[in-house]
Give the backbone structure.
Amino acid sequence: MTAEREGKNRALLWHEGSPRAGTRELLSWIAAGAAERELRDESPFAQVRAVADAGLGALALPVDQGGHGASIRELLAFVIDLAEADPIVAHVLRTHYSQTLGFVRGGHTRWLDEVRAGKVFGNAISETGTVAAGNHDFTTTLTETADGRWLDGVKYYSTGTLYSDWISVAARVEGDRVATVLVPTDRPGVEVVDDWDGMGQSRTGTGTTRFTDVAVADDEFLSVRSRHEPRPAADVPFLQLYLQALMAGILRSVATDAAALVRSRTRTFDHAPAPRPVDDPILQETVGRLVSTAWVAESAVLAAADTVQAAEDAVRAGEPTEEVGRAASVAASAVKVHLDRVAADAATSLFDVGGASASSRGKNLDRHWRNIRTLSLHNPASYRATALGRLAISGEDLPRNGYF
């Protein structure tokens, strides 16, 4: 069997919700305690580690580089599976999978070795303050002295870093440039603070990371570029579409929980159209709409993934045209604009198939709405819809920043 054929066969093990038996067992184990972990505000350290130990952090690595050769579609299909099991675990790995694609794109052998070894990568990119989100005018600095290079600054929204072995950090360097470096989480001067208090996706480690006189070695530089230089064409669209993959996985759980809720009901209202909830056509219709929403969400994410793949292929071939980059951004943006609204509505409709008991904290069904709404806040759908409208009406190009 050729390496190409073997890679295709191995990748298909994760294609469109059909993971191999061992992975299915792992996902079932992760799913079994997800609702309780969320209710107890418990971090899924063991679950994230189990995904990495199973070699699933290397899904997107080519087979000849020790990975599974998964395409972006196949990678996001697995992310949807994982988000259905536990959207916290899936969200923690967002930077890891994006970073892995970057390592492959840049041929960074040292970091590919780390991925193969089961190491997890987190991020420390975003900053708070008065600078507009998406602008790379960072206050975090990387300073060169006679004694070496030193990293200093404070980052926030460091999703996944609490669970990671390595942190990808963006810092200002001399000449209005930005350096991306990778430092281990246990290096002196690195402080990862578990202070994220979001109403949803609460245990993703999306908190503060501080760097105080952190030494950076020569071989820990990933890139140095102009602050105004755009990122690779597929990079940002992948990161944005990843969030919609998380929503698609959550929507599967919404539909499953709605059906289970109807089956569990032993009584209904006196004026209901059927004596048993399972025979109630109104409840059946509601569940059917939730199933449909979940199916369309997943299909939209996977279709957009093919467009992002085309941009990724163009970058790797050294032909990153404006057209393929724009198409990837449009696809990811369109999915978000539509899905943000229908996903939140679906998570609300879940309660329409239950009585007052559906609001029980023990059932924890509200987590789906809280998680979806928190994911949607990463960037406003209204701004994205407006940008798409300007492009369609007047041909004005999409913004070029960390959100498009």
